[in-house]
């Protein structure tokens, strides 16, 4: 099987395309093994680009199946889908192209601008409508205390927490605690906002992956809630440890814009 490895702002993914490999067989154990950074190739997640079927509707270029590093499934990833679009452009020798992608969180439209060598692409993603997230339990509310917070659904669930100092946040301890308090898990974003800047600084604990350098759906959820709270305008720069993404609000769907970097192409032996 051939995999391509990409990262979107340090959030890295392995991508296996069925149109390159034929039918791809993946289960939780194989996803964990491939994503293991010592015993496998290493990544925050594994994406299988499956051939679309009639149930996906007309015009779908590829169906996205997303596995977290711990072997669990996820509905959607803003960075991951950009990496999938980049991988598809590489396989098809496309450079300026639109793709419609079926995901477990609904269809997503990509616009890929790939460079001549397929090393670096800028990918825009229509992220779907942002809905209300899961309810916050009494235990979670008590742990949050006076901190402003909200939940959102961007095809996957998010808890966004406004803090004064990101360095003071116990990301792994508290993020993991919050993840375990929601029946289906949750992604946790801690944010600060500089007044008048239209910029959000973000740290993320991702469901099934832990602390990561960036999160595209998290950036979208954070920008959406910060705008709803009156802290930023409709065009938001989201600054994460891995780099900066742009979120454009105000239309039917938020638009997420960011890079995908091709890291390597890997050939796995049979078995």
Describe this structure in words.
This protein has 271 residues and is α+β, with helices and mostly antiparallel strands. The chain has two domains: 2-126 and 257-267, Diaminopimelate Epimerase, Chain A, domain 1; 131-251, Diaminopimelate Epimerase, Chain A, domain 1 (Roll). The chain has six helices and 17 strands. It has helices spanning 18-21, 28-35, 78-92, 138-144, 171-180, 216-228; strands at 2-8, 11-17, 45-50, 60-68, 73-74, 96-103, 106-114, 120-126, 131-132, 149-153, 157-162, 187-193, 199-206, 210-212, 235-240, 243-248, 255-267. An eight-stranded mixed barrel has the order 1-2-3-4-6-7-8-17. A hairpin with a 3-residue loop joins strand 13 (199-206) and strand 14.
Sequence-ordered SSE layout with sheet pairings:
Elements: E1 2-8, E2 11-17, H1 18-21, H2 28-35, E3 45-50, E4 60-68, E5 73-74, H3 78-92, E6 96-103, E7 106-114, E8 120-126, E9 131-132, H4 138-144, E10 149-153, E11 157-162, H5 171-180, E12 187-193, E13 199-206, E14 210-212, H6 216-228, E15 235-240, E16 243-248, E17 255-267
Parallel strand pairs: 2-3, 4-6, 11-12, 13-15
Antiparallel strand pairs: 1-2, 1-17, 3-4, 4-5, 6-7, 7-8, 8-17, 9-10, 10-11, 12-13, 13-14, 15-16, 16-17
Query: What name is given to the CATH topology of the largest domain?
Result: Diaminopimelate Epimerase, Chain A, domain 1
Mean pLDDT: 96
Our measurement of the CA-to-CA distance between the termini, rounded to an integer number of angstroms, reads 9 Å
Main sheet characteristics: 8 strands, mixed, barrel
User: How big a fraction of the residues is strand?
Assistant: 35-45%
**Domains counted in the coordinates: how many?**
2
Assigned CATH class of the largest domain? Alpha Beta
Q: What is the number of strand segments? A: 17
Radius of gyration: 18 Å
Strand order of the largest sheet: 1-2-3-4-6-7-8-17
Number of helices: 6
User: Which structural class should the secondary elements be placed in?
Assistant: alpha+beta
- Kindly state the percentage of residues in helix: 10-25%
**CATH-scheme architecture of the largest domain:** Roll
Give the overall shape, derived from the CA principal axes.
Answer: globular
Low-confidence stretches: none
Element pattern in H and E:
EEHHEEEHEEEEHEEHEEEHEEE
Annotated CATH homologous superfamily of the largest domain: Diaminopimelate Epimerase, Chain A, domain 1
């Amino acid at each position: 099987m051939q995999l391509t490895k990409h990262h979107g702002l340090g959030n890295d993914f392995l991508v296996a395309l069925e149109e390159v490999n034929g039918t791809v067989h993946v289960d939780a154990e194989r996803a964990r093994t491939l994503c293991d950074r010592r015993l496998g190739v290493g990544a925050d997640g594994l994406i299988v680009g499956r051939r679309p079927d009639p149930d996906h509707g007309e015009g779908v270029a590829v169906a996205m199946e997303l596995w977290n590093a711990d072997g669990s499934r996820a509905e959607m990833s803003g960075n991951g889908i950009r990496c999938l679009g980049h991988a598809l452009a590489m396989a098809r020798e496309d450079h300026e192209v639109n793709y419609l992608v079926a995901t477990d969180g609904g269809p997503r439209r990509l616009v890929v601008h790939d460079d001549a060598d397929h090393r670096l692409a800028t990918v825009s993603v229509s992220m779907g409508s942002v809905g209300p997230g899961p309810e916050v339990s009494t235990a979670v509310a008590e742990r949050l205390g006076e901190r402003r917070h909200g939940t959102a659904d961007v095809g996957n669930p998010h808890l966004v927490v406004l803090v004064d100092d990101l360095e003071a946040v116990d990301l792994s301890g508290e993020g993991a605690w919050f993840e375990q308090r929601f029946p289906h898990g949750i992604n946790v974003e801690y944010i600060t906002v500089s007044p008048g800047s239209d910029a959000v600084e973000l740290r993320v604990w991702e469901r099934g992956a832990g602390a990561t350098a960036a999160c595209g759906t998290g950036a979208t959820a954070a920008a959406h809630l910060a705008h709803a709270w009156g802290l930023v305008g409709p065009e938001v720069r989201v600054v994460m440890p891995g780099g900066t993404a742009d979120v454009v609000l105000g239309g039917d769907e938020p638009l997420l814009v960011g890079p995908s970097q091709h890291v390597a192409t890997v050939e796995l032996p049979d078995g």
